[in-house]
Amino acid sequence: MSFSTLNEWLEFQQGINPKEIDLSLERVKTVFERLQINIPEKNVFLIGGTNGKGTTTSILEQLFHKSGYKTGAFTSPHLTQYNERVRINLNDSSDKDWISAFETIENVRGDIPLTYFEFSALAAFQMLSNCDCDAWLIEVGLGGRLDATNIIESSVSLLTSIAMDHEEWLGDSIDKIATEKVGIAKMNRPLIFGDVVAVDEIEKGCFEKGAELRRKEHDFKGFVDQNHFFFKGVSQSINDIVIPKSWGDGEIDNLTTALAAMEANEEFFPSNNLLQEVLDEFSLPGRFEILDMGQKWILDVAHNPSAANNLRQRIDRSNIHSDYAMIFSMMKDKQLELYLNAFKDLIHTWIICEMETERSFKVEKIKNEMSKMGIENVYSATSPLDAIKTLEKNASISNNVIVSGSFELVGPIREFLLNSQGRL
User: Fold this and answer.
1) Distances (CA, A) of 151 to 30, 142, 176, 311
2) What ranges make up the beta strands (E) of 108-152?
3) Residues whose CB falls within 8 Å of the CB of residue 203, separated by 6 or more in sequence, listed in order
4) In this predicted model, which residue has the larger pLDDT, 193 or 17?
């Protein structure tokens, strides 16, 4: 089977396995062993956790890139273009590279029903191998133990945080979710744990795997004093680094976890000057991304209560004073009320919509929940782009706008806004 365009390949992959999410390592491992993928012996990071994976991955990626390494990063999902899922030396991958990798996989797949994500992960590994990347930054997709990325033998595994999310697949408690996520620990390799919850489950998982556990507040810590960041690891330290003023506690924890991983990797540890250079330039699409469209648009892919609280913290610290409107939607497996609580007292005008996926909450469900919570001034739209039109009709032009709740909400709106500015 062969196709000439990336979109044709992606449509084909969506029909191979009837389940969108089918957690198992058997299929992907079998196909992986048929491929010729060369993984570096060192500098391979497997980044898991509930929130902060993208930020942590990007920090590591930029530290290695600025130090002269050829970096390869795999992240998911994408915001606007599928090509974003793989970056080589910070640049998005090309259609041609994806198509070549997909053809290689299809030639050996046989009748194994790979999922859409498994195809993506295998193609990413093939591309990083083809490009001879010497630092691999691999973001876990869902959970850890049974995620397709877990076939990689990492030099260092990281867990950024543990919070309630994806309970349908990972379990209905922090302890159960932690047990799934610690499954990325590797024998005789360090696992960096950047949170302080479910420690017993993390310790048990590392013991069973024979991994070396390094824990936040036990083996390493980071703290901020008047916007200056300090890190103390097992033997390395960072002092007096200026961090972005709008960072929340989540981003500070992500930086701390990334530095602990750099120390455990034992390849190099960043100097104060290198780290300051990375942070001075640091930005990440869809993570507290601010677009100036006359009023400020704050785009953030926060999609669970923990991430929502961190986003609220960033808004409060940013000193952007205004009435706020919010465009909001969410996947129906999420904790709607707890998410909305983070913004209930902040938002003046709400625009709610459904996203172009069956997993989206219906507008009526969101509206009913808001009504129960006493949230008023709510307007409905039929889609993310229709939400922009509805906003223009019903919100004051002086309002700043927050767009949050899902990648599949932020992505289309971000693309529209950047296109309107001629930036895409």
Assistant:
1) 10, 14, 21, 33
2) 135-139
3) 213
4) 193
Kindly state the tokens that stand for 131: 């490009």
Beta-bridge mates of residue 92: 87
Euclidean distance between the first and the last CA atom of the chain, given in angstroms as a whole number:
32
Q: What is the DSSP code (8-state) at residue 14?
A: T
Position 167 pLDDT exceeds 80:
no
CA–chain centroid gap for 40, Å, is 23
pLDDT tens digits for range 87-145: 999 999 999 999 999 999 999 999 999 999 999 999 999 999 999 999 999 999 988 99
What secondary structure letter does DSSP report for 220? B
Among 185, 192, 186, 213, residue whose Cα is nearest residue 259? 192
Q: What are the backbone dihedrals phi and psi of residue 171, each rounded to the nearest 5 degrees, phi first?
A: 120, 160
Candidates 267, 162, 254; CA nearest to 205 is: 162
Choose among 265, 407, 393: nearest CA to 331: 407
d(CA 240, CA 223): 10
Higher pLDDT, 168 or 393: 393
Between CA 342 and CA 347 the distance in angstroms is: 10
Contact 289, 70 (CB under 8 A): no
Q: Which of 77, 307, 55, 50 is nearest to 181 (CA)?
A: 50
Task: Kindly report, residue by residue over 207-245, the tens digit of the pLDDT.
Answer: 999 999 999 999 999 999 988 999 999 999 999 999 999
Helices (H), 266-362: 272-280, 305-318, 336-341
Cite the beta strand spans of 282-373 per DSSP E. Answer: 289-293, 295-300, 324-328, 347-353
Q: Is residue 411 within a helix (H) or strand (E), and if so which, with residue range? A: helix 407-420
SS3 of 393, please?
helix
Instruction: Decide: 342 and 305 in contact? Cβ < 8 Å.
Output: yes
Rounded distance between C-alpha atoms, residue 259 and residue 233, angstroms? 8
SS3 129: helix
Residue type, 322: S
Among residues 53, 120, 116, 114, the alpha carbon closest in space to that of 86 is found at 120
Q: From residue 109, how far is each of 16, 28, 76, 102, 413 by CA, in Å?
A: 11, 9, 22, 10, 36
Six-digit token pair at 240? 């007096």
Is the previous residue joined to 113 through a cis bond, with omega within 30 degrees of 0? no
Q: How far apart are CA 194 and CA 159, in angstroms?
A: 6
